[in-house]
């Protein structure tokens, strides 16, 4: 049965987030011939509509309200709820980003609807939309089907193919009524600036306690730069103050799914694996041949990371 699907498009640093293209592609699939709409918020949103169009939504709602320029839970909830009512969406999809994680449960609760968070696969089986998500820190997967009501889902980045679609979208300037905002963001002071976004990076070079110091992260950063990737870390490295907690990957850090994950001096504790074991290719560099990380690695290098990592950088520079 065809569905009306609404996708939240996210902008970061003036650009559309890749996960938004993934959500749009999934939306086409689950709509089963129904209408796909996209909602894009914030100043400059209209200049990015062309890019959204490439992924074929039938309608793009542009919401350029000045109170919604910066994300607030309250403001976005009000706007999105009104839009969902207006288009009578059956399924609402967002990225499993910090915004999606915050917004989706709140909006779903307003509609007394179900939410499947952190989906790694979505399929349509005999007309039913099946959402797959990892449970028990990725040791098992559950499949969820909803028999009635609206459905909300957040999708884990880097898990879905993106497909462009040649459809002329209808662009609609949407003006929700935003009132009694409890939070107003005056200014954002960023801790780190620039670089590749860890949660969407295709390549991650990650360091653990074996990196031994802040300085020790330099060869990892160099390898990440050569490969056009980002640097991540284990909690061991963060707790030891070798790097910032914003880099932490794992159960209590970020969940990542890059094409290539290079773990350097990381033992492979279950809590770390929870954040990276779905990476497409895992390379582990560890001087202990019995380190558990080798059990999940596709390629293992037993050696000193301070010798191996610079060698890898040199070799990749030649490619
Ligand atoms: P270690 O376990 O100390 O391993 C260091 C590794 O480096 C060793 O295997 C060693 O052989 C190797 N090594 C040392 N020197 C070198 C060298 N020169 N060259 C090559 N290899 C070298 N951890 C996370 O990562 N993410 C989380 O989100 C997270 N959440 C947690 C939540 C809870 C509730 C708890 C209890 C723990 C959590 N942890 C998390 C911590 C986790 O259990 C581990 O303690 C942590 O992952 C260990 O970090 P590590 O592998 O860097 O350090």
Give the gist of this structure:
The chain is of the alpha/beta class. About 25% of the residues lie in helices and about 25% in strands.
| Strand-pairing-aware structural class | alpha/beta
Strand order of the largest sheet: 7-11-6-1-4-5-12
- H/E topology pattern: EEEHEHEHEHEEEEEEEHEHEHEHEH
Low-confidence residue ranges: none
SS field, number of helical segments = 9
What's the alpha carbon Rg, rounded to whole Å?
A: 21 Å
Q: Helix fraction?
A: 25-40%
Which tags fit this structure?
single chain; 319 residues; alpha/beta; seven-stranded parallel sheet; five-stranded parallel sheet; 9 helices; 17 strands; 26% strand; globular; binds flavin-adenine dinucleotide; electron transport
Describe the 3D structure.
This protein is an alpha/beta fold and 319 residues long. Helices cover 27% and strands 26% of the residues. The protein contains 9 helices and 17 strands. The strands form 4 sheets. It has a 7-stranded parallel beta sheet with strand order 7-11-6-1-4-5-12, with helices on both faces. Helix 3 packs across helix 4 and helix 5 runs parallel beside helix 9. The mean pLDDT is 94. The structure holds flavin-adenine dinucleotide.
């Amino acid at each position: 049965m065809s569905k009306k699907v609404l996708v939240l498009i996210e902008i970061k640093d003036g650009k559309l987030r890749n996960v938004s293209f993934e959500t749009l592609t999934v939306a086409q699939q689950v709509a089963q011939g129904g209408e796909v709409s996209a909602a894009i918020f914030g100043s400059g949103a209209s200049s990015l509509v062309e890019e959204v169009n490439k992924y074929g939504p039938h309608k793009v709602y542009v919401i350029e309200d000045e109170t919604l320029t910066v994300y607030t839970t309250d403001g976005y909830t009000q706007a999105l709820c009104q839009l969902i009512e207006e288009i009578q969406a059956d399924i609402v999809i967002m990225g499993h980003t910090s915004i999606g994680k915050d917004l989706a449960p709140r909006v779903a609760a307003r509609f007394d609807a179900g939410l499947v968070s952190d989906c790694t696969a979505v399929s349509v089986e005999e007309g039913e939309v099946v959402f797959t998500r990892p449970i028990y820190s990725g040791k098992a997967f559950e499949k969820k089907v909803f028999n009635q009501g609206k459905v909300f889902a957040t999708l884990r980045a880097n898990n879905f193919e993106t497909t462009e679609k040649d459809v002329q979208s209808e662009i609609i300037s949407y003006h929700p009524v935003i009132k009694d905002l409890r939070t107003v963001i005056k200014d954002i002071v960023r801790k780190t600036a620039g670089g590749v976004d860890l949660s969407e990076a295709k390549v991650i070079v990650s360091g653990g306690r074996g990196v031994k110091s802040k300085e020790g992260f330099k060869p990892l950063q160099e390898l990440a730069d050569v490969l056009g990737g980002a640097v991540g870390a284990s909690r061991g490295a963060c707790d030891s103050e070798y790097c910032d907690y914003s880099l932490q990957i794992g159960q209590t850090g970020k969940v990542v799914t890059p094409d290539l994950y290079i773990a350097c001096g990381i033992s492979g504790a279950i809590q770390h694996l929870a954040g990276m074991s779905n990476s497409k290719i895992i390379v582990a560099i560890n001087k202990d041949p019995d380190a558990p990380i080798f059990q999940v690695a596709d390629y293992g290098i037993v050696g000193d990371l301070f010798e191996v990592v610079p060698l890898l950088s040199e070799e990749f520079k030649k490619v």
